[in-house]
Amino acid sequence: MEITENTIVGQLVAADYRTADVFRQHGIDFCCKGNKPIGDVCREKKLDIAPILHELEEISAVPACTLQSFSTMPLDQLADYIVRKHHSYVREKIPVLQQYLRKVCQVHGEQHQELWQIAALFTASSAELSNHLNKEELVLFPRIREIARKQAAGEYVDDSSISAVERPISAMMEEHDHEGDRFRRIADLSNNYTPPAEACNTYRVTYALLKEFQDDLHQHIHLENNILFPRAMSTEKALTGSCRL
C-alpha cells in the first residue's frame, strides 16, 4: 500500500506488522491510539514526518515472504493465535515480573522511589489483565468463533443464535486503553526502561522484561483493536444483514 501522511497508523501496521518497529522507535502508539493518520500524529508529537515516511517505505519495500497475514486469517484462527501466543505470554510473565519487582524494590527502593510506583502499577495491571483475558476467553472469543463458524457454513446470524459482539468489544477496547495509559506511566517512571548507571543485573533484567511485556501487549492490543474486533463486527453485521434480506 502507498504510504502518505494520510495513512492510518493502525491500518498500516495491520497490513505489515514490521512497520510497528518504526512507530515504536518514535514513540507513536499504533495499538490503542492507532486510528489516526501518520501526519496528525507527527504534528501532535512535533516529529519530522519525512524521515518516518522514508523508514516506513524502506521496510514495506522489502518482500516479506514469511510475514503472517493476520488481516486475512479466519477469525477463529486469529482468536486462537492471540490466546496461544499473547494470553499465554501474559500469564507466564506476570509472576516472573512480580518476583523481580519485589526484589529490586527491597534492594533499591530507598534510593529509587519510582520503583515502588512501577511495582504498584504493574500489580494493578496484573490483576486487571488476568480478569480481562478470562472475559475474552470465556465470553467474547466463543462468540467470535461462532461467527466464524456461521460464515464458513454460509449460515445467517440472528438474535436467537448469537449475541452481538459490539458491546463486549467496546468494553474490551476501553480496558485496552486503561492498560495503554498504565504502561505509558510505567515507561515515564522508568525513563523508557533505562536503568540507572549503578543498576545491578537484576535491576537491568527487570526493566528489560517490563519493556518486553509492554511490546508484547502492544502487539496483542493491535491484533485485537485493529484486526480481530473490526472484522468480527463487520462479519456479524454482514451475516445479520443477509438474514434480513
From TrEMBL:
One of its GO terms (cellular component) is cytoplasm. This is Iron-sulfur cluster repair di-iron protein. It is found in: Cytoplasm. InterPro entries: Hemerythrin-like (IPR012312), RIC_family (IPR019903), ScdA-like_N_sf (IPR038062). Residues 81-232 form the Hemerythrin-like domain. It comes from Chitinophaga oryzae. The keyword Iron applies. PANTHER family: IRON-SULFUR CLUSTER REPAIR PROTEIN YTFE. It comes from the Bacteria. Keywords: Cytoplasm, Iron, Metal-binding. Coiled coil: none annotated. One of its GO terms (molecular function) is metal ion binding. The keyword Iron applies. Pfam families: Hemerythrin, ScdA_N.
